[in-house]
Amino acid sequence: MSILVYTDHTEGRVRPVSLELVGQGRALADTLGLPLTALVIGDASGNAAAQAIAHGADHVWVAPGAAFTTFRAQAYAEALQAAIAAAEARIVLVPAVAGARDVAALAACALNIGLAADCTNLSLDDAGNLLAERPIYSGNIVTTVTFRSRPQMATVRPRSFALPERDPARTGEISELTINLSPLTDCEEVLAFAAAQTEAVSVDNASIVIAGGRGVKGPEGFAPLYELAQVLGGAVGASRAAVDAGWIPYPHQVGQTGKTVRPDLYIACGISGAIQHLAGMTNARTIVVINKDKDAPIFKVAQYGIVGDLFEIVPALTEAFRARLDR
Amino acid sequence: MKYVVCVKLTPDTEELGEVRAEDVAGTDLGVTMALNPWDEFAIEEALTLQENHGGDTVAITLGSDESVEALKRAVAMGIEETMLLSDPAFEGSDAWGVAYALARAIESLDSYDLILTGRQSVDGNSGLVPAGLAVKLGVPFVSQVAKVLELSESNVTVLRALEDGIQTVRVPLPAVLAVSKEINEPRYPNFMGIRKASRAQYLATAAADVPRLDVGQVGAASALLDWTDVRKPPARVTTCELISGATAVEQTAELVERLIADKVI
Hints:
Shape of chain A: elongated
Largest sheet of chain A: 7 strands, parallel
Structural class of chain A: alpha/beta
Number of helices of chain B: 6
Shape of chain B: globular
Order of helices and strands of chain A: EEEHEHEHEHEEEEEEHEEHEHEHEEH
Strand order of the largest sheet of chain A: 7-11-6-1-4-5-12
Structural class of chain B: alpha/beta
Oligomer: heterodimer
Distance between the termini of chain B: 56 Å
């Protein structure tokens, strides 16, 4: 028996949330006295397996080969099913990110495993069963999911757990999975792939998010936000209004119909604070609001606010950080 | 070509915050209910595809009799046929139970080619039913569909948005597509649509009326999960301190000092 973590990666570059889950999986495994196994699908470099071991995995199952070079939901789900069997998984953890979410759902349903989706905290009860905390009703209610059977499975949002320390001296076993793919996997043909414009950090992995709304007034209005994000090593987010206006692409959207983020610092610039936006960002540790309208509802969730024109305040803030942090 | 859209009645997003923890397990949430906003994108896509490629549209929902409101909205937008799955036997189903019941209901239609769903519901938030539906039907599943590029009698080609880029994916029909909000701009129902929706008949289909539906696979008894300790999240207790100062430079310098003192930076 073991705890299994699905190690999501892009060409061997492991997504931070995967390592966060390796860290939490290690803690659960130690409590239960079980080994921690990881699954890496389709990485020719071997880097992802090495990373999983360095961050806490005892054993890595890999699924190499032509069937897995590009993401295909069905093929990846069948690899996960094979790994669950091979690892005799008692608990399975998967990052709640696009792609991996489908893999988890397809595999769990096919094996009739209970799956708690989009969790923000995990613990164990006295009998060693998983307790999975997750927001429901778009963050307005929270529940602790319990499981009636084993294995027990959860997808977990980025930044729910701390990134574990990397220990290059750690060693672990790596073995290849044997997978008999079903005819359904051949049905899914990936004809092309267009890589997204490479941004240093995505909005849901960022520890600092600088977000813009209607007040940025246009696509070029995001330029000062990007500058501030660059100085702070953060990501740029947006309200639905800014995305719907076509000023910034959808992957930046924070809120009910976008991403839910929980950074250490969220700086909302020119965002009024509709309920739907608040649903995506009120779990930030510190919220700073920059807005012309002192009555904007978003001030109600903020620790610090500056009433003023974001086109004056944001560049000044960038300069202030540059000077103070020597960046 | 038959387009099947699966929809759900959920709290109006403006009133989600008013839902009380103690009402979640019951049948009446005491708030205004509406079509799940994510489902509007699925309905719009079915209607657009029908306009371009012909075919028939049907909307299916599983829920209490009140769920008719979700179907009404679908009809008002332009969906032709509806199916309301309503039976005490379905109450307390988890995602796999709901997916199973929907799959059996879809199989009972005279045909089905493209099954469209929203990304998730604004109440349960799990996004599991679409994938479950594909598994229970034994057909391909593509989620995060940002665009339908091509539709033929035998297959569909779409754009799938992943974390690191966008794939062009082709799958044979029938298939389940969970659409993303980038895919379209849902239409507002017009007067004719609203009138049609209010005059349409919405007969409930019970579990026993769905061929090959095993009631042992649905309902609370078959669920693998329980929601325990349903509660409001801790309130965000903040008092916003407005940073004053004569100039933007003064204000921002003060803000930076505060954030550093708080160890946020």
